[in-house]
Amino acid sequence: MSARKLVKIVYRALQLAFVGLVIAHSLLDLGYPWWWNFLPIALSFVILVVAHRWGGTPDSPRAAREPVEVDPPVTGRWSALNSPADRTPSHGTHAYGQTFAIDVVAEPEEGARPGFRWLWPIARRSSAFPAFGAPLLAVADATVVRAVDDQRDHLSRTSLLALMYLMIVEASVRDLSGVKRVVGNHVVLDLGDGTFALYAHLRNGSLTVREGDRVTAGQQLARCGNSGNSTEPHLHFQLMDTPDPDTARGIPFTWRGVGVPRNRETFEAPTAESQAA
C-alpha cells in the first residue's frame, strides 16, 4: 500500500471519528467542551492538504507536464463545465487527481438540456437530459485497467433543494465511502508513458469493455450516465499519473481538433471518420 493511499484511509477514519464523537457527545456526558469534537475533522483536512503537496503541487514546475494530446471522448455538440482552461484545479481541489479534469454535457441544440431551477422540479429523471446514453469513446489506443459498472443512475440534482442535499449530505457520505462512490461507474485506460484516462459517472449496465481489454482510439467504451457524485448526466474526464484516483496527480490534456474548451463553451467534437478525412 502506498503512503498516499494510507493517508486517504487515515483521512476517512478521522472523519468517521468526528461523526462518532458528535453522536456520542449528544447522547452521553463526556465531560469536555463540545468543540473538541471538531479536532479529528480538522486534523483530517490538514493531513489531506499535506498529502496533496508531496513532491510539489500538481501545477508546480517540479510536477508539471506538457498537455497530452488525445482524441475527444465524445462526438457531436457538447458544452464544457468546470474546465481547466478557466482555472486549476478545475473542480476546486487536487483530490482524486482532478486538477485538470473537465465536465462535458450534451447540447445537441439550444435549449435541449434542462437548466437549473430554484424550486421546481426538485429533480428530473436522467432520461430528460440529452447526455444520458450518449456513447463514450476511447481517446487513444490503450489497455483497460479499471471497469466498474454496478452503481445505479440517480435523479438529477438541478434544483436548489437537491443541490443543497448533494453538497451537505450526499457528497460527504460518498467521500467517506471511498473513491468508487464518488466517481460512480467508471473506466480507466492505460495510455502508456505513465498516463491514465478516467471516464466517470457512466451509465449503469453500459460498459462494453472489461479490465485487461485492449481498445483502439474511437472504440466505444460505455455510455454517459448519472452515477456517483453527479448533479446531472455528464462525462467527467481527466488524465492522471496512476490508475487509482485516490492517489493520482492530474495531468493536463488537449483534445485533438478541439483543444480545451472553456466554461460554457459549446464545441463540436469530430467523429473518427471526419478526423481521418
Automatic annotation (TrEMBL):
The chain crosses the membrane at residues 9-28, 34-55. CDD domains: M23_peptidase. Residues 178-241 form the M23ase beta-sheet core domain. It holds the Pfam family Peptidase_M23. Keywords: Membrane, Transmembrane, Transmembrane helix. SUPFAM superfamilies: Duplicated hybrid motif. This is M23 family metallopeptidase. It comes from Streptomyces osmaniensis.
